[in-house]
Amino acid sequence: MKKNFYFNALAISMMIIVVSSCQKEPKIINEEELITTVVLSVQKFGSSTTQQFTFNDPDGVGGIPATVDSIIIEKAAQYNVSITLLNTSMPDIDTLSNEVLDEGDLHQFFYSSTTNVLSGFTYLAPNDLNGNPIGLNFSMDTWNWELNGLFKITLRHAPNKNGVGVNTGDITNANGETDIEVEFPVRIY
Amino acid sequence: MLRIRILFFLFILLNSVQLQAQNCNWQLSGKVVDKHDKSPLGFATVYIDELKIGVTTDSLGNFKLTNICTGTYFVILEHLGCEADTVQLNINKNIQTIFYLEHHTEILDEIVLTAKREQIYPTQTAAFLDKNKLQQLEGKNLSEILSTISGITQLKTGANISKPIIHGMFGSRISIYNDGIKLETQDWGTEHAPEIDPFNASNIKVIKGAGSVAYGTNAMGGMIVITPPALKKYKNINANFSIVTQTNGRGITTSARIEQGFRKKIAYNLQGTYKRIGDLKAPHYNLSNTGLQEVNLYTAIGFVKNKWNMDMSYSLFHQELGILRSAHIGNLTDLKNAIASDTPLIVKPFTFKVNNPKQKIAHHNAKVDLKKYLKKEQKIELIYAFQLNNRKEFDIRRGGRSNKPALEMHLFSNNLNSSYSRKINFKKSIIEGKSGIAFTTLHNANNAETGIRSLIPDYYQYAVGFYEMETISTPKIDIELGIRYDYTRFKAFKFDKNNQLQKSIYNFNTYAFVAGIDWDSKKEWLKFQSNIVFNSRFPNANELFSEGLHHGIATIEFGNQKLKQEHGIKWVNTLSTQYKKLIKLELNFYVTKIKNYIYSAPLPDPILTIRGAFPAFKYEQTNARLLGLDFNLSSELTSFLMFTFQASLIRGKNTINKDNLIYMPADRIHSSIEIHHDFKKFKRVFLGLSLVHIFKQNKIPTQIIDYKLAPVAYTTFNINGGWKYEINPKHQIAFSIAAENISNVSYRDYLNRFRYYADEMAWNLTIRLKYEFN
Prior knowledge:
With 189 residues, chain A is mainly β. Chain A contains two helices and eleven strands, in the order αββββββαβββββ.
């Protein structure tokens, strides 16, 4: 029993040494890859003014709910749209659309809207190194009358760009993983 | 005492009985005594190696073994504090004899030899996988090996990651002990397999009750105890070399071991395993990126001197494994597309190369075990172990970040256990006791360079536990009692959404109380065991703090910092009966009730993210009840024909919401028929056919959405055969061949979380060759 006591005493003292070793506080992990913000710069064909509409979720999954602007544009018009992706969670705001551009062959945007509201989506330059569309810039037409609806933008990572119809913006055979899928309310006046 | 061994043997018999076609009604009885003072040796083990049957002597040294067939056998005799002895006996009549054993307290490591099949928990319902059984399953991973036991199933993530489920419970509700130490790993998700190399196990035991209080309080579902070969500190040498090849995945596994002991009471043990498997295949397509590479090492050295025994060991488990490429999805739309497609969306030609997404895991374990044997079979023991678990998960990333882990954590743990065991003989009964103190520290550290917010925060955990256990063994009844209390301090460092560091401190008080009884009819034809445990488990880091998107299953999961401890009761009963060798039955029924059962409950509204809307879950508490039944039957219709049948049922209920629990194993049956015979040099020549039928899981939760219905029932057929060739008594070669899923049926399993994406493995032919020298 005496030996047992020594054993335990030894055990306890060893553990105290271990426990009392210092506790390190962790470092902040910067979410380099997180896309927090989608900015649509919308310009009516022939006009020089640009409107901006934003989907914003600065703290990522969970936390404060995402906010989204309504796209309010004119009827019976053609618009050029340019997409900018930002990461506002970093100390310096990072433009992630540049990464998408750099890896253009691994990315492609797709667009869709509720029937009639928006149509005629056409990819604009720049294309990827194989000459396939990326879709950071595109043009679209608005409906001839006042109408409300939804506009959806999808960004696929590693899509099958050679799939049937993918080149012209049909997502059906694109596969790949979804990096972005956001819906903007649209009002045409 | 140790009548539980009969149950183990029953189990072993299911798998490896071999008999001569002769009279099988002989009995071997007698007494085991000390060579010098002729005093009877109670609780010695008398074990017939060839038959894998054995008994423990009563307190007066008496034993009796029945139903032995005519033949020549090696009888192994063991006793605490004695050198093990082997006697060759020709049995062709009823034999009554006296065995003498040399009393050598310093050679006490012998106790561990046959592990004594764990004398300390005689009343636990347990299953035992011995060397022979493990040999038949070489090359498989731990969970696959364990799932051959009734009541044990696997929770899988794809074809190559699986974790064991005991009676419907997994993860932190069960515990794994390797080499006497709790395996401290990053067991937070389901996509995590235990870091164990089964080649290094001399035996594996699954305790289906709550197990021993010596190990901790959290194991509500049960525990898995893996024992590496003991360091035999007398003159001996042992070596073996195994090679296993499999057609599916074109895999190869090799393992080698050398063990040596010297007269100077020193022994060492060296073992290594290398495993490489390429992409696995389902019947109609490749399961792209399911390859695996593994390098494992184990080394141990031990000394014994003047009643002191010291063993030291170090082990490394190193694994790199691929995650099914088509299970890598971005959002719910992708998941629905994947489900709508009958075949995985990405199927590539076979390759050995493991690409992203993948996991790289390294687990180090260093241990020192110091024992001192005192007078009157008392013992004190001090074990210190250090473990480091390094887990890296690689994802498919943008901007050239794919070579950077998406998650990397180091888990450092220190365990220090000190215990005192004693044994008192009182009239015809024996009282054994053990008391101990256990200290544990854990530190989880994230790599901050991953560029992805960590799922589990950094934390420190300190625990101290005290336990006391007693077993009282009388000729007919064994009683077991155990009690344990643990205090745990848990301190987490978590950055909130504004990158402010939040420190949370928790103090947990957990307990375990175990009581069990084992009753044996005199004629050994009826046995009954009953074991009840009350214990508690504190929520783990994942349940408290996790926050994020689970890609593979397209859900967002939130931890809950308000979770309280779970309080559980598990009651397990085993009834077994036998009529000679003609029929043996074992019935195992259990009920588990858990108050404050922690589960992932759906939130009413989906969460909108930039990837679209996701269903969200948060850890909540409810009350749960699990009821189950395991049934085992084995029969030897003639001396060369063996038939077995196993069935398992389980029902899990959320008793507050009146709903089924998720991930409950479906009902299943397993049946086999085997013929075997011993020829002159070719021993244990066998050929067997088995079938496994898994029913459809109809008892799925109704309040938790699942994107895909539970898969339909399926049946797989397997054939195996082999022999053991004795070149001479020192050299042996074992050969076996096993064909799994011979009808090449396509099926999916409810307990595979990748059942959304792909079928299970196609047929597979495994060839095993083992050379043994001793």
